[in-house]
Amino acid sequence: MTPAADVKRPCPICGRPAVHETRPFCSKRCKDVDLHRWLGGHYAIPVVEEDGGSEDRDAERPDGDGDR
Asked: Which DSSP category does 29 fall into?
């Protein structure tokens, strides 16, 4: 992509036009806000646990001793 094409997209944090140096964000501040969200777990993908959670894993120990 050319720098001109990148600038046309709005900043995903505040909606202002993106700047080539900090793309896809408009500023270092918005870039840091996004990093904080990633590190804080705000962008986590929800996981649905299957039936049999940790109890089944304990019963399948290689030493055959499920209960300790």
From this structure: H
Angle at 24 between CA 11 and CA 26, to 5 degrees: 50
Q: How far, in whole angstroms, is CA 17 from its chain's centroid?
A: 23
- State the pTM of this model: 0.55
Nearest to 43 by CA among 33, 55, 53: 33
| pLDDT classification of 14: cutoffs 50, 70, 90 | very high
**CA 55/CA 36 separation, integer angstroms:** 35
* CATH 3.40.50.10420 is held by the domain 1-42: no
